[in-house]
Design brief:
single chain; mainly alpha; 6 helices
């Protein structure tokens, strides 16, 4: 559920907050493809939602998602926000790009 919320273009953060309040353990789960909420957001979400997941929810930036790709690898595939996300991720952990 949280995984779908972070992709909502209009209300992603609000939905993620509500879901996290109802069940704080969902943020640690992976979906059927092996993605975390953070790696899924990196691939098809926006930078503001990613920042919320990292800073407010404290999601682990080092957890890998689909195909064993980390959040940086998934972000560079994001057509709309990839550059901004890559910069944010690099500020948090400069080793992930390697």
């Amino acid at each position: 559920m949280l995984h779908h919320a972070v992709l909502n273009k209009n209300h992603g953060i609000q939905m993620a907050k509500l879901i996290n309040e109802k069940d704080g353990e969902l943020k640690f789960q992976k979906d059927d493809n092996g993605d975390t909420a953070l790696t899924l957001c990196a691939f098809d979400g926006d930078t503001i939602t990613m920042q919320y997941l990292l800073e407010d929810l404290g999601l682990d930036i080092k957890k890998t998602g689909r195909y064993g790709r980390n959040v940086f690898h998934r972000a560079v595939l994001n057509k709309n926000h990839g550059i901004q996300m890559a910069k944010l991720i690099n500020e948090k952990d400069g080793e992930l790009k390697f």
